[in-house]
């Protein structure tokens, strides 16, 4: 055996672990992935039902449905061969663990190992997982399958308040979790809405509606309009909203069930933005005093609800200090 053939025989070869995302349509692989598949001496896949297989075979890639051990795979690469392993949805933990043990033993000259992502999730792709999980829970969970919009309404309010608390606490981990809980409420309600016999709609309809609304109300981003300040953006938003809703009063669309200070501030904001001169109602008692404070706060650019919550939290801390309770 000459030196060249001896060197080739000693070459341990190369293993390419090809990973794909189930959230991207099968067959939409990256160019490096297609190159690796076409240049491979052998392509293996342990899952005979892998969604990529029909597309690989259609492209002329021969795929062996096999689940080799780490030792088998190392042997298949001997002599400088390249073996591509199309990973299953769960990855290949047994195979990679086995390769790690072989490498750690020092007894085997290991092939080059490359992890090659063949497709990547688009931003927001995990939302598809949430929709699928919610579908299954709605169908199979005895509690979730019986929920209604009315029965879930209180949870939406609770989760919104917990989100606000996480923001005010500055707790990033809690913020991420609470945003997820609020998102769950949206997806849950949308899933229930699909079952309505008279007027069904889906989470896609919900998303399509808000996308259309955002584009329409941001002509300075998606159209020819110009807005250089936040105030100009808000003015256009309110004008567009008034035309869309065909409201006869600036008070329309303000939910009366919201907390009192927030309600008063919202009314004051609508009045001020519309340029109306509406004197506060004359009356006696703490309610009218709070109304005046809320209007004054709104005019000063202060959220009275947030201000009161901040003061109340300081009061709570003072109470705990008086009790000798450590935070």
UniProtKB/TrEMBL annotation:
Residues 147-222 form the NTP pyrophosphohydrolase MazG-like domain. The keyword Hydrolase applies. GO terms for molecular function: methyltransferase activity; nucleoside triphosphate diphosphatase activity. It comes from the Bacteria. Keywords: Hydrolase. The keyword Hydrolase applies. GO terms for biological process: dATP catabolic process; dGTP catabolic process; dTTP catabolic process; dUTP catabolic process; response to stress; TTP catabolic process; UTP catabolic process. This is Nucleoside triphosphate hydrolase. The lineage of its organism: Bacteria, Bacillati, Actinomycetota, Actinomycetes, Kitasatosporales.
């Amino acid at each position: 055996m000459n030196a060249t053939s001896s060197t080739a025989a000693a070459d341990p070869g190369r293993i390419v672990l090809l990973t794909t995302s189930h959230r991207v349509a099968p067959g939409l692989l990256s160019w490096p992935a297609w190159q690796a598949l076409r240049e491979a001496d052998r392509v293996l896949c342990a899952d005979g039902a892998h969604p990529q297989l029909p597309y690989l075979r259609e492209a002329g890639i021969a795929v062996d449905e096999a689940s080799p051990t780490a030792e088998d795979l190392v042997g298949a690469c001997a002599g400088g061969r390249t073996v591509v392993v199309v990973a299953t949805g769960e990855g290949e933990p047994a195979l990679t663990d086995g390769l790690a043990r072989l490498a750690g033993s020092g007894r085997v000259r290991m092939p080059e190992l490359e992890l090659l992502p063949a497709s990547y999730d688009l931003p927001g792709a995990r939302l598809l997982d949430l929709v699928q999980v919610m579908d299954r829970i709605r169908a199979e969970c005895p509690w979730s399958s019986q929920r209604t919009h009315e029965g879930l309404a209180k949870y939406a309010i609770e989760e919104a308040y917990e989100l606000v608390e996480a923001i005010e606490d500055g707790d990033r981990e809690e913020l991420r979790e609470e945003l997820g809980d609020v998102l769950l409420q949206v997806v849950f309600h949308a899933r229930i809405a699909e079952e309505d016999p008279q007027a069904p709609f889906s989470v896609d309809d919900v998303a399509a509606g808000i996308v259309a609304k955002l584009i329409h109300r941001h002509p300075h981003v998606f159209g020819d309009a110009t807005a250089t300040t936040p105030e100009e953006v808000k003015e256009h938003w309110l004008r567009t909203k008034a035309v869309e809703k065909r409201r006869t009063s600036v008070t329309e669309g303000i939910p009366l069930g919201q907390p009192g200070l927030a309600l008063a501030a919202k009314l004051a904001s609508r009045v001020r933005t519309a340029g109306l001169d509406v004197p506060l109602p004359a009356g006696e008692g703490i309610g009218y005093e709070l109304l005046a404070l809320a209007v004054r706060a709104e005019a000063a650019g202060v959220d009275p609800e947030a201000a009161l919550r901040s003061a109340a939290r300081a009061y709570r801390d003072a109470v705990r200090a008086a009790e000798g309770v450590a935070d």
